[in-house]
C-alpha cells in the first residue's frame, strides 16, 4: 500500500508530465499558425523540423547508449525500406498537410477537424484487425461525425480548401498511427522505444516530402527575399532561429508523449488529449480571435463525447481480456528512462493502469 507521500509524489509527477505535454502540443499548434502568417512556406518549415528531429533523436540515442551501455537498434536496408517506408510516407503527408492547412484555416477549425482522425484510426484498425469490432463503435462514429458537421455548419471562418487539407491529413493520420502501432509492436524490429522509431522515420519522411516541396514551394522560395535572397544577416538569423525553435517543439512533443505514456499509461495520454482540445479551443477564441457560435460549441461537445466513449471502451475491453502478443505494454523496460526509474516496486505496481498503448 502506497503511503500518502508516495501518492502525492506520483500525482505531482503525473500533473507535471501532462503540463509538459500540453506546453509542447498546444505550443506547436499556435507556433505553426503564427509563423504561417508571415512565412508562407509550410513544406519547407516541415523539412527543417524533420531534419532537426533526426539530429535530436540521434543525440538522444547516443546519450541513452552512453547511460545504459546498451547498443541502440539499427535496421538493415531491407527491413528499413519494406517495413518503415510506408509508415514514414503516411507520417510525412499527415504532418505536411496539417502544417499547410494553417495558411487557410483557423486554429479552432484545425483542432476540431483533426479530432476526426479517431474515425479513420478506428477504420484502419478494424481492417488490420488491431481493433475488435463491437456495436458501440457505430455510436462513436456517429457522435464524432455529427459533431464535426455541427462544428463546420455555417461557420463564419470556414475555408473549404483548408478544411479538405486537414480532413485528408486526418485520413492519412489514421493510416499513419495504425502503421506506427504495427511497426512498434513488431518485436523483431526492436523499435518499441519511440526515440528509435523517430530516428528511423525522419530520413524517409524528409525524402518523401522533398519532391512535394520542390513542386509547390521550391521556385517561389528560391526567388523570395524571406530566406535565400535575404541581404541582411539579422532577419535571416531570426528566421533560422524561429524555424529551429519549431523543430525543438516538434521533438519535445514526441518526447513528452513518450514520457507521459511510459511513466503513467496510455489512458492518461488519451484523457489528457481530450482536455488539450478544450484548452486549445478556449485559447484560440480568447487569444487569436477565432469566432465560434453556440452550434459550433455544441458540435465540439458532441465530438468530445464520441472520443470519450472511444477511450472508455478501450479501457473497458483492455481490462476484460488477457494481454496478447500484439499488445505493447506501457511498462516495458525499453520504455523506461534511467533518470526516472523508481526504486519502490509498490509504486510501479500501483501505476499499471492499462496494458495496451492506444495511439492517440
From TrEMBL:
Membrane topology: Multi-pass membrane protein
Pfam families: TPT
InterPro entries (alphabetical): Sugar_P_trans_dom (IPR004853), TPT_transporter (IPR050186)
Gene Ontology, cellular component aspect: membrane
Annotated transmembrane regions: 12-32, 38-59, 103-124, 136-154, 160-179, 199-216, 236-255, 294-317
Localisation per UniProt entry: Membrane
Domain of life according to the entry: Eukaryota
Ranges for domain Sugar phosphate transporter: 15-309
Keywords assigned: Membrane, Transmembrane, Transmembrane helix
Listed name of the protein: Solute carrier family 35 member C2
Organism listed in the record: Hippocampus comes
Amino acid at each position: 500500500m502506497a503511503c500518502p507521500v508516495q501518492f502525492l509524489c506520483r500525482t505531482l509527477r503525473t500533473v507535471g508530465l501532462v503540463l509538459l505535454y500540453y506546453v509542447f502540443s498546444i505550443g506547436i499548434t499556435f507556433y505553426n499558425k503564427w509563423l504561417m502568417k508571415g512565412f508562407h512556406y509550410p513544406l519547407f518549415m516541415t523539412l527543417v523540423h524533420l531534419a532537426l528531429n533526426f539530429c535530436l533523436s540521434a543525440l538522444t540515442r547516443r546519450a541513452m547508449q552512453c547511460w545504459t551501455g546498451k547498443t541502440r537498434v539499427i535496421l538493415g536496408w531491407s527491413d528499413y525500406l519494406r517495413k518503415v517506408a510506408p509508415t514514414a510516407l503516411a507520417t510525412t503527408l499527415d504532418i505536411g498537410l496539417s502544417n499547410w492547412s494553417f495558411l487557410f484555416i483557423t486554429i479552432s477549425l484545425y483542432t476540431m477537424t483533426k479530432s476526426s482522425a479517431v474515425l479513420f484510426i478506428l477504420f484502419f484498425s478494424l481492417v488490420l484487425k488491431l481493433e475488435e469490432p463491437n456495436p458501440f463503435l457505430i455510436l462513436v462514429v456517429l457522435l464524432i461525425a455529427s459533431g464535426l458537421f455541427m462544428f463546420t455548419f455555417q461557420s463564419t471562418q470556414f475555408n473549404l480548401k483548408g478544411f479538405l487539407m486537414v480532413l485528408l491529413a486526418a485520413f492519412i493520420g489514421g493510416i499513419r498511427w495504425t502503421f506506427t502501432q504495427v511497426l512498434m509492436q513488431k518485436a523483431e524490429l526492436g523499435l518499441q522505444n519511440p526515440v528509435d522509431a523517430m530516428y528511423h522515420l525522419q530520413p524517409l519522411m524528409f525524402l518523401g516530402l522533398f519532391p512535394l516541396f520542390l513542386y509547390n514551394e521550391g521556385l517561389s522560395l528560391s526567388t523570395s527575399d524571406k530566406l535565400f535572397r535575404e541581404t541582411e544577416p539579422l532577419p535571416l538569423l531570426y528566421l533560422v532561429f524561429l524555424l529551429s525553435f519549431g523543430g525543438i517543439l516538434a521533438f519535445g512533443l514526441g518526447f513528452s508523449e513518450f514520457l507521459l505514456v511510459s511513466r503513467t499509461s496510455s489512458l492518461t495520454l488519451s484523457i489528457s488529449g481530450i482536455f488539450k482540445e478544450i484548452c486549445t479551443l478556449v485559447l484560440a477564441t480568447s487569444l487569436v480571435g477565432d469566432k465560434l457560435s453556440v452550434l459550433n460549441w455544441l458540435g465540439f461537445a458532441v465530438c468530445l463525447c464520441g472520443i470519450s466513449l472511444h477511450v472508455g471502451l478501450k479501457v473497458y475491453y483492455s481490462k476484460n481480456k488477457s494481454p496478447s502478443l500484439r499488445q505493447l505494454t506501457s511498462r516495458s523496460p525499453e520504455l523506461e528512462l534511467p533518470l526516472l526509474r523508481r526504486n519502490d516496486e509498490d509504486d510501479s505496481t500501483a501505476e499499471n493502469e492499462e496494458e495496451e498503448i492506444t495511439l492517440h
